[in-house]
Amino acid sequence: MRQYHELRIPGRFDPMAAVVRLAGSGLFEDHVVYEREGRWWLAGDRLAEVVADADSLRAGGERPLEAVRARLAGAGVSGWNAFGWAAFELAYALAGRPAPAGPLLHLFIPRTEVRLSADAVLIRSVDEERLAQVRALVCAPDHGAPDEATPVDTGHEAGRDAYQAAVAKAVADIRAGLLGKVILSRAVDVPFEVDLPATYLRGRRHNTPARSFLLNLGGREAAGFSPETVAEVTADGRVCTQPLAGTRAFSGGGAADDARRQELETDPKEVFEHAASVKLACDELDGICAPGSVAVSEFMAVKERGSVQHLGSRVGGRLAEGRSAFDAFAALFPAITASGIPKAPAYDRITALEDTPRDLYAGAVLMASADGALDAALVLRAIYRSGERAWLRAGAGVVADSTPEREYEETCEKLGSVAPYVVRSARQKAAV
After folding, report:
1. C-alpha span between 310 and 312 (Å, rounded)
2. Contacts of 266 (CB under 8 A, 6+ apart)
3. Residues of the chain with pLDDT > 90: what percent?
4. Is 62 helix (H, G, I), strand (E, B) or coil?
5. Is 228 known to be catalytic?
6. Of 310, 306, 361, which Cα lies nearest the Cα of 335?
7. Residues sharing a CB contact under 8 Å with residue 418, sequence separation 6 or more, in sequence order
8. Domain housing 346
9. How many alpha carbons lie under 13 Å from residue 422 in its C-beta half-sphere?
10. What CATH number does residue 191 fall under?
11. Which of 407, 388, 389 is nearest to 398 (CA)?
């Protein structure tokens, strides 16, 4: 059984700045940064991993994600935590539908794990020499002012026309009774090389996410400020999901935001869209929770998330006997608020009306623990990179009363949570 060496450092820290120093240091070949409720985790380099594609998931039987959990538990690491990502199209494989080739889920147990809060840092590593290296980076002073951003233009006319045409087709399908709701998204390319850790730091300072993340794992790179969770599961079997649906712009407070909030709370289209999402969340939890335990603990509260405000609810329950956190994640994934109602016909419309597979967009970044806990953030309000290409992506919920113009405007509002905070790479700055 592999054991971690540990070093605890008490003191006063800026955990956000410290974790970005670690991620940008080059010390780790792979890393995942995950923020939850004022605490940050950095997982660096792979000690054990599970990489799943559609074929291996099908081989996992009726509970393929439980088979993933079993492989992590069998890795021989004491007190493990696992970190990683799930692509949106993982849902297709779980539903027995055709899915893109390549990895759909990548989780790893790190060689080094750092937990950071405002008053303490815990370093765990199987490599004892890493403890001093990480400590030096965590305790290093900050140097200079934050990197300047280069805002990304998100309102290209060609993208607008194509997106509005897709929304119009979806509205026609919904009015024909083929489905109730679908989330359609659009991508915006970033026309320069990006410094992802610096973008994460600058963007996080200006956002109020439910979770945030920064990752470089298995060819996927992203930084994001998640507005909601897909699944939260405690070690004692309490499970919760946090659907957000219904959107208006938010500019930091004031009379205009108050007016938009009142409009959001009373708009029949937004209220219907949200209530339908909450109902489906209850139905999904009923399938894996103890009878009578599913309940709505918060309903249609307004949540401020960066450049937008949403209607938000919380739905929870207690896992049924014999069910695990990975069963809960499988039942709730992908988020209702990033797919549609019902999910199966929504997948058809997404495949038909969007240009490319979503991959990380509308998937999840997650952490899971040996004690049975799991926490999964919905991947939205993010910047993505693959090779030399970087891009943003945002969507809007389309229902029978949607208008193409308003749904396009909503994507612009959501892109505003990331687009103003993108930082050029040092190499690009030197070339400008």
Report:
1. 6
2. none
3. 91
4. coil
5. yes
6. 361
7. 152, 203, 224, 225, 306, 381, 382, 383, 392
8. 5-141+150-431
9. 27
10. 3.60.120.10
11. 407
Residue-wise pLDDT for 172-211, tens only, equals 999 999 999 999 999 999 999 999 999 999 999 999 999 9
Residue 211 forms beta bridges with which residues? 36, 226
**Six-digit token pair at 430?**
């030197």
Compute the Cα dihedral for 92, 239, 34, 423 and give only its sign.
positive
| Distance (Å, whole) CA 313 – CA 329 | 18
Residues 6+ apart with CB under 8 A from 221: 196, 215, 384, 385, 386
CA-based angle 14:18:22, to the nearest 5? Answer: 170
C-alpha dihedral sign at 258, 227, 100, 356? positive
Look at residue 395 in the predicted model and tell me its pLDDT. Answer: 98
Helices (H) and strands (E) in the chain, counts: 13, 19
Residue 24 CA from chain centroid, whole number: 20
Res. 36: pLDDT tops 60: yes
Could you please report the per-residue DSSP string of 98-150? ---SS-SEEEEEEEEEEEE-SSEEEEEESSTHHHHHHHHHHHSPP-SSPPPP-
CA-nearest of 258, 238, 236, 234 to 248 is 258
Q: How many domains, in total, are found in the chain?
A: 1
List of residues 6+ apart from 51 with CB closer than 8 A:
103, 105, 106, 218
Q: Is-contact 340 236, C-beta < 8 A?
A: no
Indicate the pTM of the whole model: 0.95
Q: How far is CA 170 from the centre of its chain?
A: 25
Q: Which residue among the candidates 35, 49, 113, 228 is catalytic per the annotation?
A: 228
